[in-house]
Amino acid sequence: MGQWKYVNLDASSRPRGEKDFNKFATARKLHRIIDNIRENYHKWDSTDMKTKQRAVALYFTDKVDLV
Predict the structure, then answer these.
(1) Of 6, 35, 55, 65, which has the fewest Cβ atoms less than 10 A away?
(2) Residue 63 and residue 10: Cα distance in Å, rounded?
(3) Can you tell me the distance from the alpha carbon of 58 to that of 48, in angstroms, rounded to the nearest whole number?
(4) Which residues of 29-56 are buried (b: 16+ CB within 10 A; e: fewer)?
(5) pTM for the whole thing?
(6) Chain centroid offset of residue 57 CA
(7) CA–CA separation, 34 vs 47, rounded Å?
(8) Region 7-34 average pLDDT
(9) Do 30 and 58 touch, CB atoms closer than 8 A?
(10) At what angle do helices 49-66 and 14-43 cross, to 10 degrees?
């Protein structure tokens, strides 16, 4: 028929559970070093546009996450 079919996985399904487990494992690792990350991106002062954009993205991600 040429149409897309969307499938939603149940929260208790294995693929979704593994994905969630990996996501929270990464969060636990980052929790240990978040202060170091914050300190570093506040120090970024560069003329390189990519570095500036990365610092702004990290700043907004950090602030939105705290709200």
Answers:
(1) 6
(2) 31
(3) 16
(4) eeeeeeeeeeeebeeeeeeeeeeeeebe
(5) 0.47
(6) 11
(7) 25
(8) 83
(9) no
(10) 120
